[in-house]
Please model this.
Amino acid sequence: MSHEEVGGRGRPDWSCCALHRVTRFLRGTLDYEEVVEEALTTALEVTGSRAGLLLLAEGGGNLRVAAVRYLDEGATKQAMAYCREAMAPGRGVPTTGLIGVEADADRVLGRDQNNARLCLLLEAWSRTVGVLYLEQPDHACLFPETFSPFFTALADQLACALENASRYGALRRENEQLRQVVEGHGRFAAILGESAPMRRLKALLEKVIPSPASVLILGESGTGKELVARALHYEGPRRERNFVAENCAALPESLLEGELFGFSRGAFTGAVHDKPGLLEVADGGTLFLDEIADTSPAVQAKLLRVLESGEYRRLGETEVKRSNVRVVAATSRDLAREVEAGRFRPELYYRLGGLAVQVPSLRERPDDIPLLVRHFLAEYGRRTDRGPIAIEPEVIAVLQQYTWPGNVRQLRNEVERMAALADDGQAISVALLSPEVQPAHPVAATRLEGESLPEALERIKRTLIEEALTGCTGNRSRAAVRLGVSRPNLQKMMRRLDIH
Model:
């Protein structure tokens, strides 16, 4: 931009229209560097100044040159010196607006033989953002003191724009750092487990996520099917839109139909107003239908139409609506058997089952139990402000040997129960396990099978010692405690029974 284009020979516009121009210019971007350049350019234009300088505040009260227009190196140094003098302590510097006071107008609207100078302090939210310096030939009289309110408003506009851009940039950097942290922990951070079955599950999800096709999640109750559904949504291209979940087993048929497809006023008794369905709420996103096997044939038929054409009708309406939604369904039942029994529409089964994801049960991945236990304990400690909660290794060993019919949900409840019963500062012990999880230590072969009584007793001792060692992950001291003997006595018995 040339000197003439800046408006050095034009008439300044000290009005609300000028301030509106400032706002319009500066609201077009939140990029900090662009705002810096635009702030000085806009200030020159609306004041008709011939040259200017924008200094930004740094730590320790220092100022750095951020942008300069039509000042050579020497003039820039003089302008910086002038700004520092105007900001010097004891010179009557106000908190906002013009630097200086009316009684010191020659310093505020500084004049020398050739130039009229204007120095504005830029402050936002009680923080000094920087200083704006403008100058004009003295004969132009472009900085009359009567326009101090305009200059103050200009300073406020520029300061807010600079501070907003600075904070926005800081937030973007923080978000980028958080994103890198999350990525550093890998995708599917909420799906805990590094066992072979879980690695296979995550590998399959990587392939399924980009597809727009419907997905059927299979697995026993408590395995975490909704976590998988959320991963399909939040790791995929629809993550900016809604994720809506509904448990089909929780509502009777009449209520479920209205919940999914919506209804109009008067569609049935109690329908006193129009209500959008979940298909409408989840448009563009993901609709998760848990326990899909519990839906009625009528609801299944309507869902099939949605999957095939994206069309549906609200209850009580004839108008056809469309929904661009990805349906993710889940069930703990064997859907193939439900189809054979005539309780589930085969067309819907085939439509959903094209992309099927099997979530492994907890008994199929006992290696993940230590990780899950630590996660649940840490979560419980944060919720209750108890901090870290320790757990004895033999408890982990017992938990790994249990079959967990309720899967991860049951494990979470068991861990939280033990944490609640444990004394502060004390590690969770085997004694806190619930009765159904407690090891029974059964000795199956208590009958004499062609052996003498001493031989049978030796065999039983061997079984008990080996089970205790297994349950304590080989720790002999803890195994001795479990067996009620001293460690030296246990070691003697192990040597005699040739147990290694």
